Structures are given as C-alpha cells and as structure tokens.
Amino acid sequence: MIGVVSPSVTPAQRLADTIVDALDLNPPIPIRDLVAAVADIKLARVREIGLDAVLHGLHSSGRPTLLIDEDSPNTRQIFTLAHEYGHLCMAWHQGTLECSVTPSESGDGEHSTLTQTFSFEREANQFASRLLVPKRFVADLDPDDPVTLFEAVGKCGVSAEAAVYAVAGYMPPGWTFVLLDAFGTNARAIARSPGTLDLRVVPGKPVDIDFVGQFLSASGDVHLAGSHIYWGRHEQAMDLATSSVDWRPILTEIMAAHGYDPTPSGEDWRSVNGVASWSHGRVGHDDVNLLANSIKQSFLRNTDHQELTAHPRFDEFVSSRALSFANN
Predict the structure, then answer these.
(1) What is the Cα–Cα distance from 208 to 232, expressed in whole angstroms?
(2) Cα 142 off chain centre by
(3) How far, in Å, CA of 205 to CA of 305, rounded?
(4) Could you read off the pLDDT tens digit of each residue along the chain, which spans 328 residues?
C-alpha cells in the first residue's frame, strides 16, 4: 500500500484532506460544482494575456468572481478550478490573484515573482493536487506497480502532468517520474517523491535514459491520456565500504592514479572536494548512507570528475567522506 509517506503535510494539503473527508468526495471530484457554490465562474480568453484564470474579490464582502480561460483543454480547466478553489478555501489568501497555473508544487511558472504571491500559488497547487487525487483514493494502491497505479489515477480526470506530481507526492523515497514530450525525447515535467535524490533531469532538455538508468534499480514506461511517462526507482542509500573517517589518503591515491594534482591546497583538490561538499550541503548528514550515495551520484553526473568513480577505492572514499561530515 502507498499509505501517506510524505515527511510533512502542508496546511494546504491538510485542508484538502479535510474537505475530501467532510464532503465524502471521490474521483472524479465535482470541482466545477464546488467552485460554483462559493464564486461566480465566467469564461474568458485570459490565455491571450498569458493567464489561466483571474480571481477577483477573494474574501471580500461580496461574492468572488473567477474568470477562467475558455479555450484551455478540459484537464487544464479542471486543475485550474481546483487551484482557484484552494485560493477560495484558504482564509489567508486575499485580494485579486492572476494565475498562470502549473501542477508543480514548487510554484514554477507562476505569473508573479513576488514572494507572497509565489507562496499563495504554491499552496494552491498543493491543495489542487491533493484534492483531485485524494489521499484516501491512493492509500490502498501498490507503489511497486506504476502501471496499475497510473491507470487508477487516470480515473481522477487530471492531466498526465498533474498525475505525476500527485503520485510522486504520495510515494516513498526513491521514485522519479518524467513526463516526456510527444517525441519521447525531452522532459516536459519531472516529479520526485519526498526525500528523493535529484537525478538532474531538466525540463525542456533531452533525457538520456542510458545515463539515468545507471542510478536506477528498476525503471519502465507508462502511458496515460496519450502521454508518455518514464518512471525510475533508485536506492537512496548505499552500504558503507569503510568505517574510517580518514578520507584524505584515499582521495590522494585516487587523484594521483588519474593524473590529478593531489596537493590539498591545490585547485584540483578543492574542485574534487567541492563536489562532496555540495552533496553534503544538499542532503545533510543525518543519514550517512544517504549522504554517501548522494556524493557518489554527484561524481557520476560530474563530467569533469566522473572518471574518478572508476577507481576501485572510490566507494571507500565516498563512505569515509560521508562519515567525516557526520563526525565533525
């Protein structure tokens, strides 16, 4: 079972859960009816000015008005309506909001770069995703069967992009979902389950399946609503190859074997050690095994220093370096 594995549930997500339970909602969620109960919905061509919707009079004395783009595909309208319903339900969201909606919980693609607006939009996305693909709907699904999982989520009436973000939010650490373009080559969207290491797949850029595959213990493809989703599961942690925190002699040996200058004050040393330090800054050292694996993956992705990973003592180095971070 998937359960609910996110390390933290945001207030927006918790509110969506509460509404789903209170109204006994099941997919497909009657989102247009929910919005119409609290706001006037009017169709307009707001996409011509780069927006999906404009919500006016939020939490004012009168009834709010929602202008929604009339030419948007049905799945985009559904997510936009759920996004705006989030604004309407969260009492701390006020004023007139101009929304360019993307299902990403990070808030990418928002119309405004103002901090408060960014926060509002991110919360509305979190709310929408959780409302349209409810917690209780996915709780009994098998996380090890992505094909069946996405078939079930497809019944929620959301787009493939919204589906990958919703599914990723419920999965245990170690899952990455990449929505590919119509040619199956470039990434349209990337979603990772909470706590998952970043494989550095970039939206709008080609996806090197062979390169990404070296980090994965399992992978496959799912097709949803005419869209192609590539999924991958990778181990978050690695077994430590040593218990020593004395990583410097190991790194010196590795660098010398590959023609680097192993002088600790030298540019090569700073550059190589900087890769490990970057990983530490990203994941911390509470989980040493996770940190060791993060350091290793960072080197595998680093075109300048990738050759060092071929050395037979490289796993010793990353293990020792991770332990040293944890012991400082």
Answers:
(1) 13
(2) 20
(3) 22
(4) 665 444 468 899 999 999 999 999 999 999 999 999 999 999 999 998 899 999 998 867 789 999 999 999 999 999 999 999 999 999 877 665 667 677 775 544 333 444 656 788 889 999 999 999 999 999 889 988 999 999 999 999 999 999 999 999 899 889 999 999 999 999 999 999 887 888 889 999 999 998 888 889 999 999 998 999 999 998 888 999 999 999 999 999 999 999 999 999 999 999 999 999 999 998 899 999 999 999 998 998 898 999 999 999 999 999 999 999 999 8
Could you count the other beta carbons within 10 Å of the beta carbon of residue 160? 24
Find all residues with CB under 8 Å of 83, minimum gap 6, and list them: 52, 53, 99, 101, 124, 125, 127, 128
Which residues are CB-contacts of 199 (< 8 A; sequence separation ≥ 6)? 176, 212, 215, 232, 234, 297
Domains and CATH numbers, the chain: 11-132 (1.10.10), 248-327 (no CATH)
Contact 167, 191 (CB under 8 A): yes
CA–CA dist 23, 19 (Å, integer)? 6
For the entire predicted model, the pTM comes to 0.78
Residue 91 has phi, psi (to 5 degrees) of: -60, -20
C-beta of residue 212 within 8 angstroms of C-beta of residue 231? no
* Burial class of 74 by CB neighbour count within 10 A (0 to 12, 13 to 18, 19+): exposed
Beta carbons of 94 and 58 less than 8 angstroms apart: yes
The two three-digit tokens of residue 287, written as one number: 């989980």
